[in-house]
Specification:
The complex is a heterodimer. By secondary structure, chain A is of the alpha+beta class. In chain A, the strands form three sheets. In chain A, strands 3-4-9-6-8-7 form a six-stranded mixed beta barrel. Chain A has a six-stranded mixed beta barrel with strand order 14-15-20-17-19-18. In chain A, helix 2 runs antiparallel to helix 24, helix 11 packs parallel to helix 16 and helix 19 crosses helix 23. Chain A is globular. By secondary structure, chain B is of the alpha/beta class. Chain B has a single domain, classed as P-loop containing nucleotide triphosphate hydrolases (Rossmann fold, 3-Layer(aba) Sandwich). Chain B has seven helices and ten strands. In chain B, strand 9 and strand 10 form a beta hairpin. Classes of the chains: A alpha+beta, B alpha/beta. The interface between A and B is medium-sized, with 23 and 24 residues.
Chain lengths: ~800, ~230
């Protein structure tokens, strides 16, 4: 019987080869999208599988709940306080290993040569957590001795022109360190091969501890349980005597023991190391904790939507074909075929098409893999080919697709009664309704993706405009650590003030346009019972507003010589500049806000009286931040000590001379340290590229989805119009003109598409609002993207069916009514 | 073989009701050849569909080979149809994609007959209808008469007790029509019950009994000499 099913299916596919080809191509496109989405999600969740202990390694994250109008806003850091590792080791002695790593940038000096490297401080045990690819040295013990350093081959070659450098000395922050290991590049897709974790120089953690002692005047500094700078890794024992739950239990009362005064609630959580990359990506893409959206889920859902559209497309085309197969199926039933047999026969036919689509999809998906492997630095093909989970999901998804694409038409076909072959009017009407529903669902998805693509595009243009109009002159940002470089901000400012090519100099905490998010809880009265509201916070020095050309709507900017009080200095009151949104949120006009006082709640001690913040100025709503998922209201604090990133506004007429002056000033102040500088525009472009890529992905998915839906529509139009020939013939015979028939046909196809658009609008509105709420500068959510998306789908629909509609409208009635 | 009594069948649309069969009673005995005649739209085909279990009556009793099957479920009806009933249509209703051999083989496939037995049986009936040399041809490559012979082969391949023929000669010329009628007579002589709808008085005359229908009712029945 199976051979009969296969044989019949192949013949049917061949008979309807054009529509089958469209279906197969659409399914292949959907599958390619799904494969890439799945691949991306698995890359995130399986990123550490190549480390031998990957399954037993946990890391400790810190979840902080910031107060916001009586509710809380959760933020997740992948790091933990410095003393936590020692605490866990003593609390759970059965743990195999506990180790810390802290990312930094370091200038490494060898015989007068100074080179910047991405670096990290690491405990000796760090090397026993991850089996790093050692080329020289003891793989597990290279950091056991104090003042040790491990270099990557790239760093060793750069510094010594050789890999074999064991025992050689490098100088970091004035300390001589001995090279005790050389490693090859950490293989992807591990978290250690990307972003903040990537290092070329691994320095033993005693170096930073010794430095802290020196800064504390030679004594051991108090344990800092407040700040969370260390990635803390835990390896569970092989014997299973300590579980992840036990680690979580041990972490549960850490704050109660060591920071009882903390005003915000924090939770330390042990998570699987496989979640590390995923959380990192969530933070970048969706600021996951605010939106509750997970990156892997989002991408998989988007990919799945496209494959679902392909399934709907197949179901729709096949159901349309069913009308032409009524006689065949009725006859089969007359000859004794059961409904189940017909369903199986049709599912076999669908499975053959899905199989062909799979082959085509894999062929298409594999094509760009060499380029992707080159870009990401590891063999992507091998990664997936050897990942059982990938194949399990692919096989399961394929089976699901067969059912999703084939079951509805199978059901339609099997419901044809033996006698229905002769009397098909009623079931045909029912099938028509079913097909309309499928078209509506298909185009609702297309419309949703189109609206999202338009909103992402609009937001990207808004961000570009915000960056482009932020300041009319180029702004240079010095990204060296001022502290490590030994350069004083005032000295640099004084040096730069001599240049005629520099318009203004200031400093800020962090860098402009990065993806970091800063916020502080603020309330209107000093009453501890009042519920604070989280406001976006930017610490800046004087002249910041001049550098970034931010206009003050009332009051004045910070001026050191007027005695403006510094923000965040102990419990002292301070002066702030608020943005227009914050002034309005507090119920004041820019003029009314001046001289008013608001209060900042302490996040480290809930019993502390809030500190007063006096408003000295109100600035326009212009931001040099990329993200602001909590609020668009914010304020600037005056912080000459905390704001240590120099930002220099150059004269647009002679940028080269300005840059040269900045470099000369830096070299005069820090002769041994190469300057690291970037234009603010470049930092913007780096951060922006992420959202640009997201926009491109959604546009590609929307285009594929639209392509699939249109192919389905063309196929359906072909069949439907073939079935409606007699009706059209009668209409024309009784006097309908070509244009009337043409309009009637176009409207009959546009109707479900318009309906689909309207149905998709609420969901698209919600999704767009969530997306826009991530950004500091937000595009206005107007009806425009909704209307444009509707216009696009209606135009595409009309273009897709126009040819068949014209042909049908020109039909000669005598030809189709001849047999009556 | 079959006894239908009090059979009613109404076709309904939103606007109107059409009574196709109105209290119809009909017996077809074992080995009997009955011709059903009457004007177009009198309910002949509807009665044939009910008798062939491809349509259900709204009311009435149906006894098939001594068993009351009026209340049988669809799956049981399919079983009876598959095992005991063969159909011949005016427009042949051969599947265009299948060869003559495959068309004839189809009922046996649905009966799950083993492959070797299936092949032997199909060859046997094709030889019987004189189409063994056309086994690999598609229906479109055959003449009308040959197509109807293939349809007859498909109807008899499962050794049915009852053959229902809906104007089997309606699309054939006289020569081919006579050939088909000859085949039906031969089958009847072998003990197969036949209920045939026809407009042709000549072909109706070859039946043992002629039943005339008018407006969904049996008008009269005439038993003829063998």
């Amino acid at each position: 019987m199976l051979i009969h099913y296969l044989d019949t299916s192949l013949r049917n596919i061949w008979r309807h080869r054009i529509s089958a080809g469209l279906s197969i191509f659409a399914l292949a496109i959907g599958l390619v999208c799904f494969l890439y989405a799945l691949g991306d999600a698995l890359l995130l969740t399986q990123s550490e599988k190549h480390f031998g202990k990957g399954g037993r390694v946990l890391f400790v994250s810190t979840e902080t709940n910031l107060p916001n109008s009586g509710k809380t806003v959760k933020t997740t850091a992948l790091t933990a306080p410095a003393p936590l590792a020692a605490y866990l080791s003593s609390k759970l002695p059965g743990l195999e290993t506990v180790a810390r790593m802290r990312a930094t940038e370091a200038v490494v000096s060898v015989e007068g040569q100074h080179v910047f490297f991405d670096s990290a401080y690491a405990d000796a045990a760090f090397l026993r957590v991850f089996g790093l690819p050692f080329v020289h040295g003891e793989a597990q013990h290279a950091l056991d001795q104090p003042r040790s350093v491990v270099l990557t081959q790239v760093a060793a070659q750069r510094l010594f022109n050789s890999d074999d450098v064991l025992g050689r000395t490098v100088t970091v922050q004035g300390m001589d360190l001995t090279v005790r290991g050389v490693i090859a590049a950490v293989p992807g897709p591990s978290h250690l091969a990307r972003g903040p974790f990537k290092f070329d120089v691994l320095i033993s953690s005693d170096v930073i501890e010794e430095r802290s002692r020196q800064e504390a005047g030679g004594v051991e500094p108090p344990a800092d349980w407040i700040t969370v700078p260390w990635f803390t890794y835990v390896v569970l024992p092989q014997d299973g005597k300590v579980s992840a739950q036990m680690v979580d239990q041990a972490l549960a009362d850490v704050d109660r023991q060591f920071s009882p005064q903390l005003a915000v609630s924090r939770a330390f959580k042990a998570r699987r190391i496989s979640e590390m990359v995923m959380i990192l990506m969530d933070g970048l893409l969706t600021h996951g904790d605010q939106t509750g959206i997970r990156n892997d889920v989002l991408i998989t859902v988007l990919g799945s939507i496209v494959v679902a559209l392909a399934c709907l497309n197949h179901a729709n085309l096949s159901a349309a074909q069913a009308a032409g197969r009524t006689r065949e199926v009725a006859l089969r039933r007359t000859l004794g075929a059961r409904r189940g047999q017909l369903i199986v026969q049709y599912l076999v036919e669908t499975a053959l098409k899905v199989g062909a689509a799979c082959i085509l999809a894999f062929g298409l998906a594999i094509l760009p893999l060499p380029a992707i492997s080159n870009a990401v630095g590891f063999n992507v093909f091998t990664f997936y080919a050897t990942l059982p989970l990938f194949w399990v999901v692919v096989v399961a998804a394929t089976m699901f697709i067969v059912l999703a694409a084939g079951f509805y038409p199978a059901l339609v076909l099997s419901r044809i009664l033996p006698v229905g072959g002769m009397r098909a009017d009623a079931p045909a009407m029912e099938r028509q309704r079913g097909r309309k529903v499928l078209v509506v669902i298909q185009f609702a998805f297309v419309n949703l993706l189109l609206i999202l693509a338009l909103v992402v595009g609009m937001e990207n243009r808004t961000l570009e405009r915000a960056a482009g109009t932020a300041v009319s002159d180029p702004v240079l940002v010095i990204t060296n650590s001022m502290k490590d470089s030994g350069v004083g901000v005032d000295a640099l400012r004084s040096e730069l003030s001599r240049s005629a090519h520099i318009k203004a100099v200031s400093t800020m905490a962090g860098q402009p346009w990065t993806l970091s998010v800063g916020a502080a809880p603020v309330q209107r009265t000093p009453d501890l019972a009042e519920k604070p509201v989280s406001m976006s916070l930017q610490i800046v020095d004087e002249d910041f507003f001049t550098v970034f050309d931010i206009k003050l709507l009332s009051g004045r900017a910070f001026t050191a010589n007027r005695g403006d009080r510094v923000f965040g200095k102990g419990d002292l009151d301070s002066d702030i500049v608020v943005n227009l949104n914050m002034a309005r949120q507090l119920g004041w006009t820019p003029e009314q806000a001046i001289g008013k006082t608001v209060y900042r709640t302490s996040v480290t001690d809930r019993t502390k009286a809030p500190t007063a913040l006096r408003i000295i100025g109100v600035a326009e709503n212009k931001s040099v931040k990329m993200l602001s998922p909590i609020t668009q209201s914010g304020f600037y604090g005056f912080g000459p000590f905390a704001a240590v990133t120099p930002v220099i506004r150059l004269d647009a007429h002679n940028v080269a001379a300005g840059v040269s002056d900045v470099e000369s000033a830096w070299n005069a102040l820090a002769p041994g340290v190469p300057i690291k500088r970037q234009f603010a525009d470049d930092i913007f472009r780096t951060s922006f590229s992420y959202f640009n890529a997201l926009g491109s992905i959604i546009i590609v998915l929307a285009s594929f989805a639209a392509l699939i839906a249109v192919m389905g529509l063309v196929g359906m139009a072909t069949y439907t119009l073939a079935c409606r020939q007699r009706e059209i013939g009668i209409r024309k015979a009784i006097g309908s003109s070509v244009s009337q028939v043409f309009r009637l046909i176009l409207w009959s196809f546009s109707q479900p598409v318009v309906m689909a658009s309207v149905i998709s609008w609420p969901l698209a509105f919600l999704a767009a609002r969530v997306y826009l709420s991530l950004f500091a500068t937000r595009a206005a959510l107007t009806p425009l993207p909704f209307v444009i998306a509707l216009a696009i789908v209606v135009l595409v629909t009309c273009a897709a069916v126009a040819r068949q509609a014209i042909r049908a409208a020109r039909l000669n009635p005598s030809e189709v009514l001849h047999y009556e | 073989m079959i006894t239908l009594s009090g059979i009613r069948k109404t076709y309904r649309t939103k606007e109107m009701e059409t009574v196709a069969l109105d209290d119809v009673g009909l017996d077809v005995g074992k080995g009997e050849f009955v011709a059903l005649v009457g004007p177009s739209g009198c309910g002949k085909s509807s009665l044939l569909h009910v008798a062939g279990l491809i349509d259900r009556p709204d009311a009435g009793q149906y006894i098939f080979d001594g068993e009351d099957i009026s209340a049988f479920r669809e799956s049981r009806m399919v079983e009876i149809r598959r095992q005991h009933v063969g159909f011949i249509f005016q427009s042949f209703n051969l599947l265009e994609d299948l060869t003559v051999f495959e068309n004839v083989e189809l009922p046996l496939l649905y009966q799950n007959v083993p492959k070797a037995r299936r092949r032997d049986r199909v060859r046997e009936v094709l030889e019987l209808v004189g189409l063994d040399s056309r086994a690999r041809h598609r229906p479109a490559q055959l003449s009308g008469g040959q197509q109807q012979r293939a349809a007859v082969a498909r109807a008899v391949v499962g050794d049915p007790k009852l053959i229902l023929a809906d104007e089997p000669t309606g699309n054939l010329d006289t020569k081919n029509g006579d050939d088909v009628m000859e085949m039906l007579s031969t089958l009847n002589e072998q003990g197969v019950s036949i209920l045939m709808v026809t407009h042709s008085p000549v072909h109706a005359a070859r039946a043992g009994r002629v039943v005339e229908m008018i407006d969904g009712r049996i008008a009269n029945a005439v038993r003829q000499a063998a």
